[in-house]
Every structure is written in structure tokens, then in C-alpha cells.
Amino acid sequence: MTDVLVSGAGPSGLVLAIELARRGIDLRIIDRDTSAPTTPRAFVVKPSTFYAAEQLGVLDQIFEQGVPVQSMEQSFEGRIAALAISSDERWPWHLNLGEDDLIPILIARLESLGVLIERGLELVRYEQSAKGVISVLKNRAGGEERVETSWLIGCDGVHSTIRQAAGIGFEGHDSDLHWHVLDAQIEGWPYKANHGMLYLDHLVVAIYQTRSAFRIYSLSLNHCDDSWTSLHDILRDVAPSVRLGPPISDVSFQCSARLASDYRVGRVLICGDACHAMSAGSAAGMNTGIQDAMNLGWKLASVVSGQADDALLDTYESERRPAGRAMIDVGQKNDDLWSTSDPVERSKAIRRFSVNFWAYLKNGGNGYEPVMGNYAASSISVGEQPSIGPGPGTHVPGDIRLYKANGAAVFLTGALSSPYNTVLLLISDGGLEAEQLVKAAINLVKVSNRALDLAVVARSTEGAAARRVLDFDENSLLIDPELNCHNRLGIAVRSALWIRPDGRIGSRNDEVDDITLLTNQLDAAFPGLLQSPALS
Q: Which residue numbers delimit the FAD-binding domain (predicted)?
């Protein structure tokens, strides 16, 4: 019997399949469409997805295909309302990369893991029991196939068949606003490719560049099959020196603001747009779905492999549903602001928005926290928050540069891209206590038989503790010669952290001499992890 059936090969379904496949889980992924989408869809790739791409192994590919946005300008009432330049040392605010360009990258990664998408198959019904799920798949010729799996995951979009069949509510409302996505060339555009423009006089017009064309998002109060004409007139007013070329594609759609009441019913779970529908004004629907998949993937793999009981899956909803709710609220707030009809109130609202947006971008935000969510209150975020630095439930910062034992530069998040839970030790200059801590951690990792990995951050390769790590696995040793990592995380001497497979801190224990507390925290968070079949 196959372990998992994933229905839907959009970004969330593909990311989930990759996360399962790289952990050795037997799965099938189906999609009712016979080919991958080629029309304009989601477009903004946020820093939350950069984190995911690094773990998935596709970070270089998405930056090769996309255009990084490093400055954003807002124009209102004929003047510049706000201009902000990215302050991030590693990543820009976001990347211009369409879903239609991201999907081939994810497909190639999935195929490299030996998994092919089965296209032209639609899940029409299913029934579940305590032991598994029997799904009925229909092909294009009308033939049906009964498939038995241990788990069924619905990544089948806003109109999810799986969500509806599970009786999961999808409360909210549909928007009266109409979004348009136009791809075209623009002659005489005065800005660089990494510069994004928001024109706020006519509801909203957002202009970005891709590798091949310009992509223009616009909003209207009424349906329009031809956004090109209205955008041509708008650009003539706001940028008279440019010329809008003929449309390459012109798509119109309406959004909804809806959230699933549950993310799991027994052995059936939903993910991505099946969980939440949000306005394009949030610029985060695809990114939120990718984070859903990153969260669910490692947890489902842990359950399937016997390293955790299925209660772990309940933390998927408790961690991800608040993030979905937050991004729906962001989109609704923006839609309400942009569609304010009173000229005086609209002017005041837009100016407040511009000031807040500038401050948000200046601090490197751009929707990062709502998309990612904060899991500090989760049942698998163990221990108190530290007075300095990130604590349980927080993602490890993405811009901490370290060095491998051979001198090669690496970012901490890249070094923590293991498919498994990681014991992370920061030991500064070492010493007897650090050596004992490292020895205990190595023993724990050895007996876990791949349930755990090890990473140790030391000031150099010279200390006895560092040499123990080198004897165990040189790839586990990371060098922090100026203690930048220690300082950034707020660690004075040494610390033992449990890093979840999604890059979140599960627990953090400062000033410890042994691994006992961390071991107990892991055992409490994952009953069965340290007594899994792999360890017997």
C-alpha cells in the first residue's frame, strides 16, 4: 500500500511531494490537468519561500529565473509617496517569479527524487477508515482506479473536492473587486529591472519586470476582459514617456477571503489554497501555501516512518491556520483601503499606508512574519523564550554566514537543511564542558540512526570539542571565527538547540553541560522519536 496520495500538483502539492520524497516516503502525486499551467498566476516570491527553497535545494534555480526586487516606489497624486531600498544583506524583499515559472523548477526537483506527476487523473471520491484511505481516480477516458493509501492530502485548490467531501467548512466571503494580470512589453520604462512601482491613484497598479516581459497587476470595481486599454490610458497619465506594447496575456479574476475550519479529518489533510483563499492584495497566497507544505511534509514523514505518533499532525493546523488567517486579514485590509471611494478619506488612507509600508520594507518585513507565522505557542515549541535572540517557534535567521571545516563559506540555514531534526550546539571557544556536551550529542545522534543530525558551531577547528566533531563527521562542524553567530543568537558561552526539519527552533537550552534536557524535550515533543523502529 502506498504511504501517501497527494492530489494537486501546484506549488503546495509539489513542495509537499518533494518534502516527502527526500525523506524516503512512498507517494503518488496526481493532477487532473494534462500539462503544467502556462498562464499568469501568483507572481511574488517572498523571503519565506527563499527559506523553503534553500531547504528544498532549489534556491539557486529560483534566483536564476526570477528578478529580485530591491527597491519599491509608490506614486500617489502625481508625487512619490514612498521609496524604500532593501536593507537585507542576503535576500531582497521579494522575487519577481511567476507560479508558471516556479512550477517547472519544482517538477524538476521532484523528478530528480524519482517521483513523476500522474497527469489527467482526477480524484472523484474517497472513503477512509482507521487504517487508511481508498480513493477513486478517474482518467480522461472515464476509466476509474481504486487506490489504497495510508494518507490522503488535498492540494487541490480553492474549490477542493477533498475538503468538501471531508465536510470541512470554508467560511468567508467573495470579493467585489476584480484583479487583472497583464503581460506586455513597455518601451521607454525609466526604471531598472529590480525596481517595483505602485501607482495608487487608480485603485492600484503594480508594475514589475520578469526575465522576458513586464507583468502588471491592476484592480477595478467592475469586470473587464480588456485591461490593456485601461492600463494604456493610466500609463499615458502617470508615465507619458512610455509606450505599452500589445498584450502577451491578459487575465481577469476575483478573489475570496475564506479559511478552512479544519486542516485535518482523520487520515485526510488539506494544504495550500484548499485551506485558505485570500486577495491578491496580500501578495502571499502561494507563499503561504508553500509554508503549509513545508510544515506538513516533515511531520507527515515522521508519522509514516514511525518516528512520531499521529498526534504530531494536529500541530500542523495549530501552527499554520493562524498564519492563513493573518494573511487573509492583510489582503482584506489592503482591498478595503484601495477601494475607499471618498476622495478625502482615500487620500488620508493612502498616505498612512505609504508611511507604514515604507517602515515595513525598511525593516525587511514585506509580509514575512504573517506568511511564516510564529509558533511560539505550539505544543512542540519547548521551553521559555530567551532574553536575547530567537527562541522556540522562531525560524533560524537566514543571513548568518559561517564556514565549513575546509574553509568554504555557508549560511547557517543552508547547513541546517537536513530532512531530519538537528541537534545544534554553539560552543564558542570550547573547554571541558563543551567537550562533554559534544560527546553526549554525538552519542545521541549515533543511536538515533538518522532520526537526528548534528551541527556544532565553534570558533575554530583547534579545540578538543571541535576535533571530536571532525572525527565524527567533518560536515557537522561549522566555524564562527568572530562569534557573529553566537552574538546574533544571543549566546554568551554555549547552548544546545533542537532545530526542527523546517528550520524552526524547537527548544533552546543555554549554559548547559550535557544533553539530558534536550533529549527529554525531544522525547516529550515526539513520543516515539527516540524509540522508533529505526532505533531498535
A: 2-329
